[in-house]
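Lab meeting minutes (informal)
Scribe: AK
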Amino acid sequence: MNANATPVKAPLSERLLSPILIKEMRSSMRGARFFVGITFFLLLIATVSLMVYYVQALDSYSNPTTIGRTLFGFMTAVESMLLMAIAPSLTAGAIAGERQKQTFEMLMATPLGVGQVLRGKLAASLNYLFLLLIAAIPINSIVFLLGGITPGSLIAWIIWLSVSVIMLATFGLLVSSWMTRAGLATTLTYLLSALLFVVLPVMMLFIGTSFFFAAGNQPPCRSLASLGLLHPLAGFMAINGVFSSNWTSYWPYLIAVLSFYIALSGLFYLASRARLSSILGVPNRRRWLIVVPLVVAIVAVVAIVTGPVEQLCNFPAP
């Protein structure tokens, strides 16, 4: 054999895409469940949109602009709840499922590194979620026929939902890296998600409201209330014009909260990588990278609490 022979290059698709992503896409798209899921997803959004339009059209005081805004709000709310509920379930069993089937060691015996495995599993889950999001865009665009919604509102909502979905997907991946059973990982992911995004915000709402009225709207109480703007619901409300009809004035807030979500996604991913590296006994030479998303998250929180985006809370002057 000639030692100077030029090695054969892998196809471009294999060099750009993870082998795990290609494998997951091939296996998922062969069955009917993949296409049935997309069909039911679109039918549900279309049904809700039709019902909202019918109810609004019966109101004699409604005009096309009002109908368009209401339809956009309900349509995006349903789609956001569905995708944000599906996201953690797809990644919760990514690593735990491999360990349950006792194929995790075989997977790590391949030339793929820990990072490549995690990115492949994450990309395979996000591929389905983004396909659902893209498939629903024609239905979302119906609101342009009625008015009241600009293309910028739709684009901002798509960006916000994409980043939120990635954050929840990486959170599910983190939980999966600690579990050995896919069912247990999925259950724990939903319990922790409910605790972080439902129970904790409600507790902060009651506690913050009590302090707010007791202290007479002092700056510390205003900052505590501003922490509620970190919740994904606040971003959704800002894009839908709940705080003000001119949602574009809240770009500083949207940029800050999206930066916070991206930083959390990075933290969850790097923590998952560190966990798998410790399980396999592989040195994690890039653990210092966790400082980057941590700093970004802290800066984003400070910007939301103390920056000009405090106007979202609509606090009166003390």
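Next up, CB showed the second protein from the same session:
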Amino acid sequence: MLSLHWALLAAGLPSAFLTIRYALSLVFAFVVYLRDGREALKDVQPIIDAGKGPRRLISRR
């Protein structure tokens, strides 16, 4: 990977290589953020559902 960087630097394309690498790292970070959010929602969803139950029963009475 480092040799590719030096080859692109010698060809005068460092900015394109770094921009692509930066964009890929942003995409990866966003995917990890979404996955972690979904996992957290799975953990919290039963608590949210349990909280909805009594309120529905109270509102029916």
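CB comment: Residues 2-60 form one domain.
No objections, moving on.
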